[in-house]
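Pilot study result, target chain (299 residues):
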Amino acid sequence: MSWWSRWKGLRAAGVLGMNARNAGVILDYNPRKRFPYVDSKRKMDELCRKIGVPTPDLYAVLVSHSALRHLPRILDKHPEFVVKPNRGAGGRGVLVITGRKGPDYVRHNGTVLQAEDLRQHVSGVVSGLFSLGGNEDEALIQQRVVPDPVLEKISYQGTADIRVIVYRGEPVMAMLRLPTKASGGRANLHQGAIGAGVDIATGVTHHAVLKDRKAEIHPDTKESVIGFQVPYWSDILEMSRRVSRAVEMGYIGVDIVLDRARGPLLLEANARPGLAIQISNARGIAPELERVDRQLSQK
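Predicted structure:
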């Protein structure tokens, strides 16, 4: 099959490509002046607290290498925590600590990290090793999300999250990202996590892929990932709408996690959400965008 035939087939199926997303959606609906609110996790944290959207607690922000001298004192207060680059992307540089073993730190996968190794990691974050553009960054010390037990059967070690695409204030597509052993316990599709499409109306998973291949069973837990009811679904959709309105962007991806004690928490927002969500849902997103356009034009 020629590339032209494949392109026509994808377009007929309503698949939104990267060029169409960038030129026809992001350029039109995401003002550049609003990008700092989603590119900076610290700014997003401040915004969420302002509009009353729950988000993981932020314990500390390290803005320079000289601030590393405060790290032991900060961490002594928190037996478990997450280290994140303020302007990171794709999960790079995120370090999850679930407990202590003497003076050392236990990671989410059970491996042990010495204090000096942790300090070096935080130093790398501040240096910009994991950040957009490679510029110097800030290291965030944040609350560790303890996953809701309902997700344990279909998730391996790490924390699953829900990605909701919001277009002009309306949620149009969603997926549940499930960590696997291959992904290192991370909810990252490129690293081997499962992407399970979620029906917007019901919050039930209806299709799933693993490395772009159809999947129905989690490879590690052996549980079905189809027909799963995502808890707090109406709350998740409303949180997504509120964040979209607050950042004043017309096309964003909103990532939400489910904490055992606090329920849905806003993890971050993305002004350039990836397109793999269409594969997870086994359908294109373009018809949904057109539907919202029609509805708004009739008002």
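One observation from the pilot: The radius of gyration is 19 Å. A full batch analysis is planned for the follow-on phase.
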